Amino acid sequence: MGDPGPGLEVVHVWVAPLDVAPPALGSLVSTLSPAERARAARYRNPADARRFSAARGWLRHVLGAELHVAPGAVRLTPGPGKPRLAGRSRPCFNLSHGGELALVAVAGREVGVDAEPAGAGGSGLEAAGLVCTRSEAAALGRLPPEERADAFLRRWTAKEAYLKARGLGLRVPPHRVEVGGARPGAGAGAPVRVIGDPGHARWWVRELRPAPGYVGAVAAEGPEWQVRLRSTAELALALAPAPAAHRS
């Protein structure tokens, strides 16, 4: 998304494929913790288990490269809530996966990211009243029919990224989140806030087009940051086969 301007912090967003060859998937799975493997085993659909395992493996590879440690040595906080690095507050990170794509956002400030297949917006339009504010729903209704699904999905991913950045999850319904501007994330980004919060918006969101057929968004505190899209192809050397002692 271009070189960052002077003095602007860069939020790195790593784009990771989830449909990987068996040797690569095996290397990703080999880095998972026992808890992550147990969670993967609880998925009834093997494809869902594969996507979860690959996404968490890529997360560990990205964080391992950031911390200069082996992916399997990355320690994450257990339990519910927004995942964090155990024993340290920085860097901040967030993971999202939709379809066969995962995004890993890494920054020096709190960050959230969301990605969805572009086709997901059509079915989501039925839930516009639950996701959008009244003014947002009205604006969607004024758009040409062929533009509504994409506009809805951009709005949805912006709100999801914001809620994940703040660690709010399902405690705040999306229709209570207001994204400023006509196009979330266009240009310098858009302010985003929970309706009723005092003061000016402290969080900003930027739109992403991480890969053909996908829509995404990244949110972080303050407006003074830019996004750099990265590819996990840069981490190819980290996918060397694990030693036999670690595969047992």
Notes on the protein architecture:
By secondary structure, this protein is an alpha+beta fold. The chain has a single domain (12-237), classed as 4'-phosphopantetheinyl transferase domain (Ribosomal Protein L22, Chain A, Alpha-Beta Complex), CATH 3.90.470. Helix content is 31%, strand content 24%. It contains 7 helices and 9 strands. It has a 5-stranded antiparallel β-sheet with strand order 4-8-7-6-5, covered by helices on one side. Strands 2-3-1-9 form a 4-stranded mixed β-sheet, with helices on one face.
How is this fold's topology laid out?
Blueprint (H helix, E strand, L loop, with lengths): L8 E9 L4 H8 L4 H8 L4 H22 L24 E7 L2 E7 L3 E7 L2 H5 L3 H4 L2 H9 L2 H22 L10 E3 L10 E5 L8 E6 L5 E8 L3 E7 L17
Parallel strand pairs: 1-9
Antiparallel strand pairs: 1-3, 2-3, 4-8, 5-6, 6-7, 7-8
Helix pairs in contact: 1-3, 2-3
Instruction: Please give the largest β-sheet.
Output: 5 strands, antiparallel
Give the tally of structural domains.
Answer: 1
CATH architecture: Alpha-Beta Complex
Radius of gyration: 18 Å
Strand order in the largest sheet: 4-8-7-6-5
Mean pLDDT: 84
- Low-confidence segments, given as residue ranges, are 182-186, 237-248
Secondary structure tally, helices? 7
**Approximate shape:** globular
How many β-strand runs?
9
CATH superfamily: 4'-phosphopantetheinyl transferase domain
Helix coverage percent:
25-40%
Q: Give the termini distance in whole angstroms.
A: 42 Å
Tell me the series of helices and strands, N- to C-terminal: EHHHEEEHHHHEEEEE
What name does CATH use for the topology? Ribosomal Protein L22, Chain A
* CATH level 1 class label: Alpha Beta
Q: Which strand-content bin applies to the residues? A: 15-25%
- Structural class call reads alpha+beta
